[in-house]
Structure formats: structure tokens, C-alpha cells
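C-alpha cells for Transcriptional regulator, Crp/Fnr family. Go.
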Amino acid sequence: MESLSYVPIIMTDLNTPWEKVVHLGVPVTFPPKSIISRHDAEKAPGMYLIRRGGVRLSNISLSGADKVLFYLGRGTLFNEVPMLQYAGSGTFTSMEHTEAVFWPRKRINEEFIREYPDLILNLLESISRKMRAFYFQLCSQQQYDGFVNVCRALYSMHLFNRAGEDITPGLTRLELASYLGLHRSSLHKAMARLRDEGIIGEYSKKKLRLLDADRLKEYAETPRRD
């Protein structure tokens, strides 16, 4: 269950019930860093279920920066909003070798709504959770400074992305900085401070060594700035 104060940075397993209809879809594979363009979505509107790997949804900000909105992992649908609106809403890019299943909008409208109402309910629930995650991200970036947001992100990993005693971030430093809206140097300074204070150890995409979860939580729950 999600914490009331934190959301997972990489959303996974939101739509696992859709596994029961993968045989009705088309398997697709995306090499790392493949752009899944909105033009493709307009030509063949539909949505995908990630079965392996992951994608990110990004958009170009007013300053021209590529702003990450979501990171989505296994067991999660994507492209559902362009499918429903017949329009693009940002760019989906595969983060690594990604395997998915594609269902066209026509099949969902003509078959799934009638025969699988439980899946449509799951789809609506997952859209709601994504909206909550986006709202949480937007509020955090407006209400906290960069250092606190780094602490909040790392503490979120502690809550949601644990594998035994280790933490598996699933993101490189650059990917984390992009999600937080920070320059790489700002993220580096924040992590250096946390290392110097004995709160974290090494950080990589595969492993975060957390040495003092209580102190990290204290920083993460610093009162909001006015």
C-alpha cells in the first residue's frame, strides 16, 4: 500500500490483471532509448502493457528542457491517454530493452468494455494513481528545495523499492535528476552531503546503500518552505 506522504518513483504492477488478455494482443519489442512517438499512436491508437523493461513519459518544458513526468515499469499500461483522446500527450521512451503487448483501441472499445469490465475498472484506477503521482511530484518540487526533494526521493525508494536489505533504485543519477527537475551537479552535491553525514553509501541504478534511514526521513520530512 502506498504511503500517504510518498509515491513510488517507478510505478510497477498497476495493471497486472491485464495479463489474462495478453493472448489477444500483439507482442512488441522496443530497443533501449526507442522513442514511441505520438504519431504512431495517432495512426494506430491503442495501449501497451509492459511485461519486461520500462518506459518514461516526458514532455518539453517552456524552458526547452526534457521534463520527465513518469517512469513506468513491468505490469503497467501506457499510452492509454493518447488512445482515449486520439492525440499525443508527451513522448514515451524505452529506458532499456522493453517487451510489451499492444491492444488497438477498436478491440478495447468493441470487446474489452463488454467482456472485461474488471479490466476497465483497473484501467481507471491506474489512471487515478498516475494523476496522484504527478500531483505529488508537482507539489514537492514547488514546496521543497532540491536537497529535501533528493531526500524524499531516496526515502521513497526505501519504502517502495526494497529487495531484501538492499534498495534497488532502478534509475541512474541522470534519470533521477531529470525526474526531480534538478541539474546533475545539484543532485551530486546533495548525495555528497548525505554521504559525508553517514546517511547513504554508494548509489547506482542497481543498488542504494542506506546507512541511516531515520536521519534520511528527518530530512525528507523537513517542513515545507513558504
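Helices lie at 38-43, 80-85, 105-115, 117-143, 146-160, 173-180, 184-196, 213-220.
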